[in-house]
Amino acid sequence: MAKLGKRTTAARAAFDGKANVKVTEAVSLVKSAATAKFDETIEIAMVLGVDPRHADQMVRGTVTLPHGTGKTVRVAVFARGDKADEAKAAGADIVGAEDLMESIQGGTIDFDWCIATPDMMGIVGRLGKILGPRNLMPNPRVGTVTPDVKQAVKDAKGGQVQFRAEKAGVVHAGIGKASFSAEQLEENLKAFVDAVQKARPSGAKGTYMKKVNLTSTMGPGVSVDVASATGN
């Protein structure tokens, strides 16, 4: 068994005996454990009482975090003509049509967010098996298939986060950086939890939000009191 480093040992000791803590304490613990040489991402993971294999239990959506994610987001836009010009003017990093499709099919995916105008879905649809598993497939339900590419690019660059339940009913996302203040992280966390709460599908039965966990990129995780996270 590998020997744990001093940093990891100290972090685990600080978390020892901590479970289902209030949001304020969870944020404080995770921030204090984020001592890597880079600005660690603070991540939330939520276990939901859903089975995403059933269409009426799929959870997905977007939320604009009050303080952004702290991450530089690269945005790709499928558009032509005036819409392509709008996307470029709004700050999109990559804009294209068939050329962008071919680049993605060739294995080049150097973006974090993908937007498409409705008329481009004939092309984008061919990329479902590539973009879908990466949660990058444009979808009108989350506003990434839209004629208003200017606003969509602005939202993506401004800290909008997409979420989607995975097979085990887990939703996770980065909600900021360790360099954020505790107050900023708390507000981002509550905004994210609120968005997932509002996205509760019609087929969800029983307890919807089962567990909430907070961690940093390199640090241990701590479970958060669900009532504290939801404001109940």
Folded structure, characterized:
The mean pLDDT is 91. It contains nine helices and nine strands. With 232 residues, the protein is an alpha/beta fold. One of its GO terms (biological process) is translation.
CATH superfamily of the largest domain: Ribosomal protein L1/L10, rRNA-binding domain
CATH-defined architecture of the largest domain? 2-Layer Sandwich
Low-confidence stretches: none
The number of domains: 2
- Strand segment tally: 9
Structural class: alpha/beta
Q: Please name the CATH topology of the largest domain.
A: Ribulose 1,5 Bisphosphate Carboxylase/Oxygenase
Radius of gyration: 19 Å
The residue fraction in helices comes out at 25-40%
Beta-strand portion reads: 15-25%
* CATH class type of the largest domain: Alpha Beta
**Outline type:** globular
Roughly how many Å apart are the termini? 42 Å
**Whole-number average pLDDT?**
91
Topology, please?
Layout: H1 6-15, H2 23-33, E1 41-48, E2 60-64, E3 75-78, H3 81-90, E4 94-96, H4 98-105, E5 113-116, H5 121-124, H6 128-131, H7 149-157, E6 160-164, E7 170-177, H8 182-198, E8 209-216, E9 222-224, H9 226-230
Parallel strand pairs: 3-4, 3-5
Antiparallel strand pairs: 1-7, 1-8, 2-6, 8-9
Helix pairs in contact: 2-8, 3-7
